Amino acid sequence: MSVVTVQLGQCGNQIGFEVFDALYTDSHCPQGLCSKRENEAYQASCKERFFSEEENGVPIARAILVDMEPKVTSQTLSKAAQSGRWKYGQHSCFCQKQGSGNNWAYGYSVHGPRHEESIMNLIQKEVEKCDSLSGFFIIMSMAGGTGSGLGAFVTQNLQDQYSNSLKMNHIIWPYRTGEVIVQNYNSILTLSHLYRSSDALLVHENDALHKICAKLMNIKQISFSDINQVLAHQLGSVFQPTYSVEGSCHYRRNPLGDLMENLVPHPEFKMLGIRNIPQMSENSLAYSTFTWAGLLKYLRQMLISNSKMEEGIDWHVQPPLSRLPTLGKASLNRELQFNTSIANLVILRGKDVHSADLGGFKDPALYTSWLKPINAFNVWKTQRAFRKYEKSAALVSNSQFLLKPLDTIVGKAWNMFASKAYIHQYTKFGLEEEDFLDSFTLLEQVVASYCNL
Amino acid sequence: FWDLALREHAAVNQKGIYDEALSSFFRNVDTRVVGDGGSISKGKICTLKARAVLIDMEEGVVNEILQGPLRDVFDSKQLITDISGSGNNWAVGHKVFGNLYQEQILEKLRKSAEHCDCLQCFFIIHSMGGGTGSGLGTFLLKMLKDEFPEVYRFVTSVYPSGEDDVITSPYNSILAMKELNEHADCVLPIDNQSLFDIISKIDLMVNSGKLGTTIKPKSLVTSSAGAVKKRHQKPFDAMNNIVANLLLNLTSSARFEGSLNMDLNEISMNLVPFPQLHYLVSSLTPLYTLADVNIPTRRLDQMFSDAFSKDHQLIRADPKHSLYLACALMVRGNVQVSDLRRNIERLKPSLQFVSWNQEGWKTSLCSVPPVGHSHSLLALANNTCVKPTFMELRERFMRLYKKKAHLHHYLQIEGMEESCFMEALSSLSGLIEEYNQLDATKSMPVEDFPRLSVAM
Fold first, then answer.
1. Domain B53-184+406-442: what homologous superfamily?
2. Is 3.40.50.1440 the CATH number for B212-223+236-387?
3. Beta strands A200-205 and A271-277, pairing class
4. Name one GO cellular component term (chain B) (predicted).
């Protein structure tokens, strides 16, 4: 089954390129550590999901590019074409000239309706190329105007037009300081709308990715390209094919459906995060060897202490002895040490996957009381190594990891809203204070729900 | 400005193709075609025409331009001139010439707009102290708002310095301010004294021949080599160069590619939290650069520090000791997001931001540096440090107005009454009061508003 990707705005398009590039390079990586037949099956599965065939053998990404100004999409298209490895479809791009001005209301209320038909047509064309559709993967940022506002609009449309297909929104959580001043407004408007129309929100935080680049990859002058590459690596380690059944050699067919089934048991809890191990520059790889026991031990601690990387983990955080839920906001004000999970999915790739012991993740103390570990925890495996990593593990989790960042954004946006700052910029384009209040209400509800796990 | 813009695009555009970047400021025209049908949208550059309308109620300056080397850049149909001038009288510029030329101006604006695929923004460049720029300029501003309500209006206004030789400049400025308050989306105030001080500093550095501080020969800020005018005879040329660079840098991220683009509409969106408070203090760094291309990090950080120093602002203002409502950093050249973040973290503690916008930073990264530099930074601050400029202006106004000096020149114009002055004064006072209220919050502790509580 295939996944149709919608790349929105500068962020979405810049990331989209890196993701397809990572997927392609991995599937054509010579060091697969498995048999030739195995490798071919892997490649074929990856291709079915993300690429369609072209006459002269250059695969075309199953994606559409949308932006309200032309510079980024034309750059993205030419970067792909110049690589010679894969490319975007000739008519897969929709762009305008004037941008969205970092204004969620402009993206949602002006661009959305104006360009609805053209964009949905493009999506339809891409969907028709698929033999069967697993669902949509929508890449967008929360801080800007196009990704956030138009992204929310498009997702809503997808829900109406393709009600039987799944939608996963990949959201970029902005740096805490210094990207866009109205980013908190744009974020709460986006999140509240997506919470109603999307099936799952896969979140990547710029601050976390930045730290990974600095500490683990040892990059001195970090660019957005570096950040996007780390991100693409993480996404690749989740989306590349894995066996459908323990012990079999057939690859699972419905990546989005399986992800949702394993990770989103309840519609109130939709926010997913990724952790990956090991994460290091490829030069250092040659000098390191890993055991599954070691990798999984670190990964587990990363989960429960809410750390995004394998360095600087707080080993003191341990699961609580009693699993009684704590009520109310008091628990938020206390230092939230332990990260409670609703559901976890571990994906193992590489040598001796079958020998990996996942007992640590089946401990009921990790999870909220209303789901047993047997339902809350799942494993996917493949012997085929990911890129050059002899062993690698990814963890996709639905947990409290975003609780603090979300609470912070809601708090800041609320302070700004109470001062009425910048509101006129939004009401100019059809949004009203009521809409803001609705968003705040919904998100306070989400915060409370996660808090009470 | 047009001189520098052409040079900037010439440096970047090697193949002479008329591209998106060029089309933001220029039309491509085949001059052999008579009338209006000569526009070419793609392909090789034929003749570039500035997307501009030039207005002056005297002929001297415009004639000089039309006889100068840039004469082909301007379409003679895009000019409006008169002979007598406005006599440094806002009322003459606004009421008399406004009415007289309204139709003509409108027609030429409409023509220019039609030539654009997607018109995003008007740049109005004028002075506040005279008669035409101030009076007719603000008349035009209102017209733009009525005719093209969705197009942003950015105004670059030269405010009169303390030692300004036009006696009536306070009247003109205050009358104009009311219009700016009501009809502009964003105003970038500039004053001549600050420009002059910056130029003097550069001259000092060049002439003292300090080791390692040589001006790059092709720098657009100071160089006359390759520029249209052979020598900078008057200091005004050098001073105007700075303002021209301001406009270039303001639009660089919209014209050229980068990893974090910023369009003009984003400036207004992020920096104007309340409609009236749209005055942005600007600073450009570095004004001088060194010979080597790979600048070690320390010097890059210096560029960021300088942007906040009062010596680099284009008006007399000290943002560091006043209150920030919002701040934008527009970087060009070989600078990455980590450099930006590092410097924001470093400088943040020494700056005061209003309580509801403690992290009020807007950033952009454009990969194309200005000609002759490896990187540059434009900082735009919505900061209460503009207040002193307005208060001084008000004082100078009051000194004249109390004695009714020169008032008759204005009142004799049809449509002008004393109430115009009173309204303008009250508009300015209202603005100053807003800044005062914000300043009052400066030393108060930041308290969070109580959040919505949700029933579980």
1. Tubulin/FtsZ, GTPase domain (3.40.50.1440)
2. yes
3. parallel
4. microtubule
